[in-house]
Amino acid sequence: MAAPRAEVVIDLDNLRHNVAYLDGLAKDADTMAVVKADGYGHGAVEVARAAVEAGATWLGSCSLAEALTLRAAGFTVPILAWLDPPGTDYTPGVEQDVDLAASSITQLKDITAAAGKAGKTARVHLKIDTGLSRNGCPAADWPALVDLAAKTANIEVHSIWSHLAVADEVGHPATDAQAERFDDAYREALAAGLDPRRHLANSAAVITRPDLHLDLVRPGIAIYGLNPVPVPADLRPVMTFRSTVALAKRIPAGESVSYGLSWTAKSDTNLALVPVGYADGVPRSLSNRMHVWLAHKRRPVVGRVCMDQIVVDCGDDAVAEGDEVVLFGSGDEGEPTAREWADTTGTIDYEIVTGMYRPRVARTYSGTRR
Ligand SMILES: *Cc1c(COP(=O)(O)O)cnc(C)c1O
Predict the structure, then answer these.
(1) 151 in active site
(2) Catalytic position from the list 120, 151, 249, 259
(3) How many domains does the chain have?
(4) Which residues surround ligand 1 with Cβ inside 6 Å?
(5) Which of 75, 150, 172, 206 could form a cystine bridge with 192, CB 3.0-4.6 A?
(6) Are residues 58 and 97 in the same domain?
(7) Do residues 26 and 139 share a domain?
(8) Ligand 1 pocket check: which of 25, 34, 161 to mutate, most ligand atoms within 8 Å of Cβ?
(9) Domain range enclosing 248
(10) pLDDT tens string for the chain (370 positions)?
(11) Residue positions in the annotated binding site for substrate?
């Protein structure tokens, strides 16, 4: 087999480890593995399979289409889909037992209409906005929403739920304020005659707020082994991004490298050309600010990141065409991590790994159970 040009390797053993660990942290709650955006760029179906093997009893997706992809792949566990535009036909979702979120009366009516068409009860999770001001029903409209849901025949309210804004900032008072508003919303739901379960916790809250685990937790980033909080957690990064040296050469002192000639060799040096660039998910803003793991060492990428290529300075070390190059990985051996890329470019590791979902990057799996 040819050496990879641009490849992410997804370690499903690490994913299973992370899910089992998080499930253990939230012993009294069920665990929903969040696999939206094609499993944060890791492959939703493969991730979901490994997550269920490791103890997840729910799957979470953003759109109904994502949920239906999981159903088509054969998953029978509950799947929650939480955000689609108005006018979405939820009928296939109801038919295929996808749990649906409603943040408004309009959404609840769309789901009710779909339940009518499907000729079966739709299972709904009513979402309250407790302070994120994004998706979710404003508190002022909540009594009407829970009232209508309680009265609608072909709607079964499974849960009420909300999403946290600053759970990654440990000890931030806004999380407590959100939890209080969530309690208020729960009391109003009970008063309307509902008896819902409750869920609130993202990865950060799974790790730091056991009091908010409630009935179900919804970890996303942590199942991929990336820790959103500065608190130790036994998580193992799942994605490694690698390539192969395509060309090795020596240049004399004074020669410069790549578009703009932004880096100049101070002495004669060996260069390794790696055939990945910003079309493969290497941010151009990492030009002259990144390293790769190559021939047992971290080595600097010199000059600009191009669409298809980067150049690594290897000094006097012999580096051969065909050598493996790790762009980012677990960090265990000293290789860069997705977090390091995020810190350098001013983003979060969520965006780095999710951004690896692109047609030019091959995806392979290790630790697959057959
Ligand atoms: C993405 C998402 C999650 C998971 O968040 P992480 O920070 O990745 O753990 C949980 N709930 C909702 C509603 C989400 O959109």
Answers:
(1) no
(2) 259
(3) 2
(4) 34, 36, 82, 163, 202-203, 218-222, 228
(5) 150
(6) yes
(7) yes
(8) 34
(9) 239-336
(10) 689 999 999 999 999 999 999 999 999 999 999 999 999 999 999 999 999 999 999 999 999 999 999 999 999 999 999 999 998 999 999 999 999 999 999 999 999 999 999 999 999 999 999 999 999 999 999 999 999 999 999 999 999 999 999 999 999 999 999 999 999 999 999 999 999 999 999 999 999 999 999 999 999 999 999 999 999 999 999 999 999 999 999 999 999 999 999 999 999 999 999 999 999 999 999 999 999 999 999 999 999 999 999 999 999 999 999 999 999 999 999 999 999 999 999 999 999 999 999 999 999 999 987 6
(11) 134, 307
Q: How far is the CA of 291 from the centre of ligand 1 (A)?
A: 30
Residue 229, domain member (yes or no): no
- Structure-block tokens of residue 58: 């729910």
Active site residue 266: no
pTM of structure:
0.97
